[in-house]
Amino acid sequence: MTALLVATAATKSYGPRRVLDGVDLDIAAGDRLGILGASGAGKSTLLRLLLAVEAPDRGEIRFRDRPVRPARPGALAWFRRAVQLVPQDPYGSLSPRMTVAEIIAEPLECLRVPGDHRERVAELLAAVDLDPALARRRPAALSGGQRQRVAVARALAPRPEVLVADEPVSALDATVRVMVLDLLLEASERSGAALVMVSHDVAAVRRVCDRVAVLDRGRIAESGTVVDVFGAPGTNATRDLLAAVPRLPVGAA
Ligand SMILES: Nc1ncnc2c1ncn2[C@@H]1O[C@H](COP(=O)(O)OP(=O)(O)OP(=O)(O)O)[C@@H](O)[C@H]1O
User: Fold this and answer.
1) Pfam families given for it (predicted)?
2) Is 194 helix (H, G, I), strand (E, B) or coil?
3) What is the complex's ipTM, to 2 decimals?
4) Residue 253 confidence (pLDDT)
5) Which ligand 1 atom sits closest to the C-alpha of 198?
6) Starting from the edge strand earliest in sequence, which strands make up the sheet with 58-63, in order?
7) Which has the least CB within 10 A, 36, 56, 61, 65?
């Protein structure tokens, strides 16, 4: 399968503290990879490197074999179109002053994506199962689940090859979590975009991903298919995560 987003020996320190240490990771077309780890394991830092928001101190990030590093927005537009973020918190991430339609169209405008943006917004609202009448509303008028649907639609807008989701359901009520996880799964299946989902929630990874990499204190402790890694965990890091209280409603996973 075509390798899309690849981290090689990615290392990052903040002051004297090494937060990531030689992380190798590859995301291929069609993959749904969970990056699982306890709080402080380095998950968000790894995402910032994968998104070229920050540069590794050592090692590198490549997309379709092309190195990517933080750069002025115009220079990275090709990469921003290809790799889109679904943020953690739908309350904080959507601009309160913009309408839903403006929010979804924003990446199309910023990244100068050709085509009829209005038509694309209508298509995206349908894809995430939002009533077209919501297009003129502002985020304050929406529920948490609806806001996360808007965030997914926005991420899908430029037809990315990889969707990166950062703890996409941790800010939501338990009842809405399963719905949003299923939406992400469906969005990646339908659009053909690979999905990278950071989480500390085993049940969320099990529901959405087919591969998992367990991050422990800045290193990949183990990786493999969800079935193999969760079926026969090879490290204490994985066993501890599996022993943690399930976060999805009983019977949902
Ligand atoms: N910009 C920064 N400056 C200094 N330290 C940082 C910075 N970003 C992260 N860290 C530290 O790096 C470590 C890993 O943080 P990171 O947010 O990547 O972990 P995480 O696995 O995403 O944790 P959580 O699940 O709690 O979000 C933490 O100890 C954190 O305090």
Assistant:
1) ABC_tran (PF00005)
2) strand
3) 0.94
4) 47
5) 22
6) 17-28, 3-14, 58-63, 66-67
7) 65
Cα 203 to Cα 217: distance, rounded to the nearest angstrom: 21
Distance of CA 217 to the CA centre of its chain: 20
What pTM was estimated for this model as a whole?
Answer: 0.91
Does the Cβ of 45 fall within 6 Å of ligand 1? yes
> 18: CA distance to ligand 1 center in Å?
10
pLDDT at 24: 97
Task: Domain 3-243: give its CATH superfamily.
Answer: P-loop containing nucleotide triphosphate hydrolases (3.40.50.300)
Compute, in angstroms, the gap from residue 161 CA to the centroid of ligand 1: 27
Token representation of residue 135: 């297009």
Q: What is the DSSP string of 116-183?
A: -HHHHHHHHHHHTT--GGGGGS-GGGS-HHHHHHHHHHHHHTT--SEEEEESTTTTS-HHHHHHHHHH
* Residues recorded for the chain: 253
pLDDT tens, residue by residue, 85-108: 998 876 778 899 999 999 999 999
